[in-house]
Amino acid sequence: MKYALVTGGSRGIGRAICLKLAETGYPVLINFKSGKKEAESVKSEIEAKGGTAELFPFDVSDGTVADNMLDAWMEKHPDDHIAVLVNNAGIRLDNSMIFMQNEQWHSVLDITLNGFFYITRRVLKSMLIKRWGRIINVASLSGIKGLPGQTNYSAAKAALIGASKALAQEVGARNITVNVVAPGFIETDMTKDLDDQSLKKLIPAGRFGKPQEVADLVVFLASAQAAYITGEVISINGGLYT
Ligand code: NAP
User: Fold this and answer.
1) How far apart are CA 94 and CA 50, in angstroms?
2) What is the 89 CA–ligand 1 centroid distance (Å)?
3) Is 212 in the pocket of ligand 1 (CB under 6 A)?
């Protein structure tokens, strides 16, 4: 069976991606770090609609744990493989550069960039053997244009874009595509502390995006129809100038 793994699948954009991938028939591995209750609710919703899901809890920034979890899963599932990988887990720890603490810098890079590396490296092996795969990395408008107060987050997301473009060229001949989606402002826990009334005025569409709208794009990139799209960064931001 071909599985889909979604990191940070318990809430927000990741949650919507899990639900939509399950609707298209993929059994889904829901990764999360600590929100077990939220992850269980995603699993129940998938199962209520006739789909299949497994909880897959671990901190993506811990390479040893990520390797162990993936190895254990692969041992338990000798006839299955992860055909779709969505690297979505991410955090924001904003601060002006002058006040930024080492921990704020490192943890954002560790989760977004190192997490992408640890998991993708391990999952890639079976995609190369099967000669098919879809890797979709969730970056941000911040990684394209940079946003003040987010040097850590912008650096992590820009690096994720660079790594995705390089990897797309490494694995293109094996029918593995690697693409990036770059959301603008999306209604999730990550943006609930922002002043949405003033931000909305900057967005031509006049509103924040919905997690389901990002999920629709991800599911398209994961589909067979998207076979000739690779190494791309697709913005989904309501027309916000980049
Ligand atoms: P969210 O609602 O805060 O959800 C974050 C998810 O990531 C949760 O499932 C969380 O699980 C998981 N996570 C965090 N740290 C983790 C770790 N170390 N290991 C494993 N899982 C971890 O965020 P979101 O808005 O949906 O964002 C999803 C992605 O979209 C992020 O990469 C974010 O940077 C990107 N993005 C978001 C927006 C936006 O406007 N919302 C815009 C551009 C890009 P736990 O609760 O268990 O920690």
Assistant:
1) 40
2) 5
3) no
Report CA(134)–ligand 1 centroid distance (Å): 20
Report percent pLDDT > 70 for the chain. Answer: 100
pLDDT in tens, 116-146: 999 999 999 999 999 999 999 999 999 999 9
- Where does the pLDDT of residue 242 fall: very low under 50, low under 70, confident under 90, or very high at 90 and above? low
DSSP state at residue 189: G
In the numeric block, the tokens 């699948």 are attached to 9
Task: Show the tokens assigned to 238.
Answer: 């309501």
Q: Is the CB of 90 under 6 A from ligand 1?
A: yes
> Fold for domain 2-236?
Rossmann fold (3.40.50)
For ligand 1, is residue 179 a contact (CB within 6 Å)?
no
For residue 233, what are the CA distances in angstroms to 103, 122, 151, 168, 208? 28, 23, 20, 11, 20
Cβ atoms of 166 and 173 within 8 Å: the answer is no
Any catalytic annotation for residue 153?
Answer: yes
pLDDT of residue 25: 98
Residue pair 219/17 in contact by the 8 Å Cβ criterion: yes
Q: Do 13 and 183 touch, CB atoms closer than 8 A?
A: yes
DSSP lists the bridge partners of residue 133 as 176
